[in-house]
Amino acid sequence: MPATPHQGHVVVAPDKFKGTLEGAEAAARIAAGIRRAAPGTEVRELPVADGGEGTLAAALAAGFTRVPVKVAGPTGLPVDAALAVRGTTAVVELAQACGLARLPGGRTAPLTAGSYGVGQLVARAVALGARRIVLGLGGSASTDGGAGLVQALGVRLLDAEGAELPPGGAALRRLAEIDPGPLAERLAGAEVVVACDVDNPLLGPRGAAAVYGPQKGADAADLAVLEEGLTRFADLVAGTTGRDVRQAPGAGAAGGVGFAALALLGATMRPGIELLLELLGFDGAVRGARLVVTGEGCLDAQTLHGKAPAGVAAAAARAGVRVAAVAGRLELSEPEWRAAGFAAALALTDLAEQPGDSLTRAAELAETAGERLAAELLPG
Q1: By C-alpha distance, which of 215, 208, 260 is closest to 236?
Q2: Are 158 and 164 in contact (CB under 8 A)?
Q3: Contact 123, 98 (CB under 8 A)
Q4: Mind telling me which residue stretches traverse the membrane in this protein (predicted)?
Q5: DSSP assignment, residue 111?
Q6: What is the pTM of this model?
Q7: CB 276 within 8 A of CB 49
Q8: In Å, how far from its chain's centre is CA 143?
Q9: Is the dihedral of CA 28, 34, 38, 41 positive or negative?
Q10: Which of 171, 262, 283, 313 has the fewest CB atoms within 10 Å, measured from its CB?
């Protein structure tokens, strides 16, 4: 006898499980477990992201078209990147061009890594007719204040001799003049929206160099050099544009790319997960659902401050739909995750039979997690 369909569907909307599962695979595995435990239930897979790595993949899974583009990587060597396009909207993921994973041999270059390739992706989006460009920040290998980004779009950054500055944050100490060039014409009619989940300013103890420089290989001496360069850049940008956004929340994102986007591209900045859920049509997908399942590699205190699962939980709550979480590791106590709006939470580490299984058998355990959540939360 065929299974009777349950009333209302389930939406599976996880972020990536970093190092083990991409968002789309996590969604597929959790969904498979739900279908096995609750035959006849319609399950919709909608992997999400918060603006960092995985943003492009989430857009592609939601029906955007992949456009391959060869661009300059963080050290200037060419890399194969891509952007996503649907209609007049384009999604650019910074990590595709200048992410840490793009460093040749994994060797960091804290003083000389740049963001030129990101500007090339934006330029390609404009050439394709994009009128709204969503720029996802996160995972950057550079601390150049977004200098490379704007150079790729026609801005000239000149030293005292009138020579163009080379890539990297260190070179900004020699900046003497900013020539906007054809930037305004190139971006005419195009809106840039930055998807960002951090609120760091460009400079100071919470700034791009101080907080994120060490992750990119910068030692104490390097940090002083980068801070000096970024300060010089901010001073000249303010003098050239009449706008000083160095202390704006998010200006320090992605090594200062947030700063250049705000100050020179006229971008607006929005919380990454909020913007991505809107872009992916989450509100429409969750309408009439019985349950939403989200997740990420580690559900911890950071999750509660703008990460994807918290954003999904908030959106599901607005729709009056229960939400559960699957995580590689669960570092929140039950009162904490319940207070965040989750009806249930499962960790792959708790489902593992042997230490390390949550990494080596993540896909299988994600399926088991989906099965258990369905048995618990989808009675009948």
Answers
A1: 260
A2: yes
A3: no
A4: none
A5: T
A6: 0.91
A7: yes
A8: 17
A9: negative
A10: 283
Which residue is it, tokens 């959790």?
Answer: 30
Q: Are strands 78-86 and 65-72 parallel, antiparallel or unpaired?
A: antiparallel
Q: How far apart are CA 299 and CA 287, in angstroms?
A: 25
The tokens for 55 are 């943003």
DSSP conformational letter for 118 = H
Burial class (CB in 10 A: 0-12, 13-18, 19+), 41: buried
For the beta sheet containing 322-330, the strands, ordered from the edge strand earlier in sequence to the opposite edge, are 43-45, 10-12, 291-299, 322-330, 342-347
Parallel, antiparallel or unpaired: strands 89-93 and 78-86: antiparallel
| Collapsed DSSP state (helix, strand, coil) of residue 86 | strand
Residue 30, both tokens: 């959790």
5 Cα distance to chain centroid = 36
Average pLDDT by stretches of 10, the chain with 380 residues: 59 94 96 96 95 91 96 97 97 96 95 98 97 94 98 97 97 98 94 93 97 96 98 97 96 97 96 92 95 96 88 95 96 95 95 88 96 90
Q: What is the DSSP string of 336-368?
A: HHHHTTEEEEEEHHHH-SSTTHHHHTHHHHHHH
3-state SS record for 232-277 = HHHHHHHHHHCCCCCCCCCCCHHHHHHHHHHHHCCCEEEEHHHHHH
Q: CA-based Rg of the chain, rounded to a whole angstrom? A: 22
Residue corresponding to tokens 């404009």: 126
**How many angstroms separate the CA atoms of 266 and 191, rounded?**
8
Q: How many residues does the chain have?
A: 380
Q: For residue range 87-97, what is the model confidence (pLDDT) as tens digits?
A: 999 999 999 99
